[in-house]
Amino acid sequence: MTISPAAWRCSNFWTSSERHPGRSQLHNDRRTNRSRSRPAVSPRERYRAQVQAEIKQHAWQQIATTGVSALSLKAIAKHLGMSGPALYRYFASRDDLITALIRDAYRSLADAVRQAYDSGADIAALAHVVRAWALSDPHRYLLIYGTPVPGYQAPADTVAMSQEIMSVLIAAHRKAGVPSPETPFAAHLDSHRHWSPDPTAPAAVLRQAMTFWTRLHGVLSLELAGHFTGMGIDVALLYADEVDSLLHQNLGRFR
Prior knowledge:
Blueprint: H1 5-19, H2 24-37, H3 43-66, H4 73-80, H5 84-87, H6 94-118, H7 123-136, H8 138-145, H9 156-176, H10 184-190, H11 203-224, H12 235-251
Helix pairs in contact: 3-4, 6-7, 6-8, 6-9, 7-8, 7-12, 9-11, 10-11, 11-12
């Protein structure tokens, strides 16, 4: 029997409350405050969200087996015991489903990076947060940073989500506050900063953040695509060495 996410959370809450009776009132107070600030979710909406989650779960399984280009809503519907038209009530097309998966992936990474930064993570720590996130689900990482899906055009809101990640990297480099030498690319960025979520960031900081982003994703993409297989090297050490190289090159010994 499949247990819905809502039912699991409910059972987990009561188990926790029985172990720690003193926490139940505080938990109830928090639940009451949250319920006042957002509208109630109807049973129909909860059911729809549960079915969408199951569809996405099977989509990830299919992507892991056959790749995103071969993603088939009909195959997912058959696996779930649904008709094709019934599934289309939840996702109107393959592209709609891919978009939902991309949004989930970007949201997960943006939240992980933001939470780490807000908890005091420095640039080196953020780099390892990104790698840990990528290794936890390589297909999720490759969906947003790997080969583009033929014929698919991502909506604008996914670009905004990706900018949340860059915003944290820019903030972390700006917070470090260590000057870096002017370069031709930094001068170029000074007049090509429309992509930056922080329009006031110095060009040198933008260069640091972008260099950090491109070089680390380069290592991660090669690692997850299997290009280091057979070389016998410790990729974790390679990644750490690349992080150290970036820190010394761009920021000096600020750690």
